[in-house]
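Format notes (please read before filing issues)

Several people have asked whether sequences and structure tokens are stored in separate files. They are not. Every record keeps both together, in the order shown below: the sequence lines, then the token lines. Line labels are part of the format and must not be stripped during preprocessing.
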Amino acid sequence: GRATPAAAAANRISTQAAFRLDKETTYSNMTIVYALVSRQKTVLAEYTATSATGNFPTVTRVLLSKIPTHDGTMSYVYDSHMFHYVVENGICFLCMSDELRKHRIPYAFLQDMKQRFIARYGTAIPQTAIAFSMNDEFSRVIQDRMDFYNSDAAEHAVDSIGAVKSQIEDVKGVMVENIEKVLERGEKIELLVDKTDRLNQQAFKFESSSRNLRRTLYWRKMRGYICVGIGITVLLYLAMVSLCGGFGMKKCFSHS
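Then the structure lines:
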């Protein structure tokens, strides 16, 4: 199997930032694994690819506090992951990619996501929207576009559409910076990208479900015992009433 790069990563990370990656994670041909739309630190919508597990939302919350609010484009790198973002009118469109050399596809994705977001909500509504108020609706759009840009068809589409191609040409001049440089002294981020996280969650859910099931079956059995006990008591009482000459039970207690 492939070894995790924990030891190598520890040597590369300064006291400013600490990420932990698990190389056993596989995304098949996937490039983009996570994306969001935010106004500064207020996330309006986000989506994580189902084949990826980890704490991407936690990490990006720290990054969002470092991203300037003025219009701009930039990429941050750590190990085998890239964070790309585009800011326009104070709204940030960000995605995380597991490809260091493929910037064209992530930025084409961000431009597409940005255009669809503005077409749907305009530029004024997002300025006052509360956190995740657009998530139910727009996360599905993010998912749809992410699936497309992670497919083989995306390469041809990006190269063939003139407008998109001209925008992507600008990506060559995008500054790529190590993420550690934007973190403050003593600030620490752990980027967890692994399957263990998902397995632990599933194990916890299974254990919790098992406990709930055992508890439900136990009380169901107890209710059964109680009902049977009450039924037997009632039958015994009715039998005594019948044998003793009625509810007064004179035959049975006449000598008392």
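For reference, the curators noted about this record: The chain is about 45% helix and 15% strand. The radius of gyration is 31 Å.
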